[in-house]
């Protein structure tokens, strides 16, 4: 990989999570129920897993609150049957429901691959060991993942860093840390008229 190549992420991505470094179960967003398909309770399904069919292999999924469970049967063309949903009205009520799976039900990541949820809460430090704070979030904007760092206590500085090998040369999940090679900061001066608007 080149110096600016993105880090490899585990196969199931586009994650959102309930994070707890204290050992409670974390859940990862793996899909979303779309609009109804036909009149017999079928729905369109958006799968966020690398293999769209994998979403049905994790067992029952839950909603965002973790209170409702959904067992899915995949059908061709991105359509799914949700157990217990037999008509269009019931399917319509599920539109937009985001589907989560417990992190421990996902397959282990391969070497040099990471589930983005596993980075949340890791200490961030420079190559010299200086604390940069903690990874608060990982954002995916289409061009690659970015780590959101909360600065160390008392500094209150938030940083947004590209999750590339050049910027994050070491990811030590077991050690609870990432090593960051800070890029040069780029400050973009306001254009004429922008200062007054702010």
From TrEMBL:
UniProt domain RimM N-terminal: residue ranges: 30-104
Keyword terms of this UniProt record: Chaperone, Cytoplasm, Ribosome biogenesis, rRNA processing
Stored InterPro entries: PRC_barrel-like_sf, PRC_RimM, RimM, RimM_N, RimM_N_sf, Transl_B-barrel_sf
Primary localization: cytoplasm
Residue ranges annotated for the Ribosome maturation factor RimM PRC barrel domain, each copy included: 118-185
Coiled coil: none
Gene3D superfamilies: PRC-barrel domain (2.30.30.240), RimM (2.40.30.60)
Region (Disordered): 1-22
Subcellular location: Cytoplasm
Quaternary data: Binds ribosomal protein uS19.
Function: An accessory protein needed during the final step in the assembly of 30S ribosomal subunit, possibly for assembly of the head region. Essential for efficient processing of 16S rRNA. May be needed both before and after RbfA during the maturation of 16S rRNA. It has affinity for free ribosomal 30S subunits but not for 70S ribosomes.
Entry's family note: Belongs to the RimM family.
Domain text: The PRC barrel domain binds ribosomal protein uS19.
PANTHER family: RIBOSOME MATURATION FACTOR RIMM (PTHR33692)
Protein name (Swiss-Prot/TrEMBL): Ribosome maturation factor RimM
Organism: Paracraurococcus ruber
Classification lineage: Bacteria, Pseudomonadati, Pseudomonadota, Alphaproteobacteria, Acetobacterales
Encoding gene (name): rimM
């Amino acid at each position: 990989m080149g110096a600016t190549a993105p880090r490899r992420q585990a196969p199931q991505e586009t994650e959102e999570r309930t994070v707890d470094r204290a050992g409670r179960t974390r859940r990862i967003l793996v899909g979303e129920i779309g609009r109804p398909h036909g009149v017999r309770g079928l729905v369109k399904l958006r799968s966020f897993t690398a293999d769209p069919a994998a979403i049905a292999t994790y067992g029952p999924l839950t909603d965002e609150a973790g209170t409702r469970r959904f067992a899915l049967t995949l059908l061709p063309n991105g359509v799914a049957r949700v157990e217990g949903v037999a008509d269009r009205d019931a399917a319509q009520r599920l539109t937009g429901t985001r589907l989560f799976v417990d992190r421990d039900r996902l397959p282990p990541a391969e070497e040099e691959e990471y589930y983005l949820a596993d980075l949340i809460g890791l200490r961030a430090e420079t190559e010299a060991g200086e604390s940069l704070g903690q990874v608060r979030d990982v954002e995916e904007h289409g061009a690659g993942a970015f780590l959101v760092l909360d600065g160390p206590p008392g500094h209150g500085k938030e940083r947004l860093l590209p999750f590339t090998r050049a910027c994050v040369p070491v990811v030590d999940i077991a050690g609870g840390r990432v090593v960051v090679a800070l890029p040069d900061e780029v400050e973009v001066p306001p254009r004429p008229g922008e200062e007054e608007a702010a």
